[in-house]
Design goal:
3 strands; alpha+beta; about 80 residues; single chain; about 25% helix
Length: about 80
């Protein structure tokens, strides 16, 4: 059966969330603010997420960007979404 350790995290550990997705800081960040944005339902890939989940993920990416812009010093020069 497929498994994701992220789905075992308590909502208290989430940085941000919405109805279908949540965000957590990466445990092994490549850069300051490295954040993972995940569906609350286990999916194998972006293409297996429903249209509503994809929209929720992108909405949360925007929310996280706003939060990082407000809290990181220096402010990031740019962002990578992958």
């Amino acid at each position: 059966m497929p498994y994701s350790p992220f789905l075992e995290l308590s909502p208290k550990e989430w940085q941000s969330s919405n109805e279908l997705a949540f965000a957590v800081l990466d445990g092994f960040p490549v850069s300051a603010g490295h954040t993972l944005v995940l569906t609350k339902r286990l999916v194998a890939s972006w293409f297996d997420a429903s249209a509503d989940e994809q929209a929720a993920l992108m909405s949360l990416v925007n929310d996280v960007k706003i939060e990082l812009d407000a809290t990181l010093i220096p402010k990031p020069d740019g962002y990578n979404v992958g």
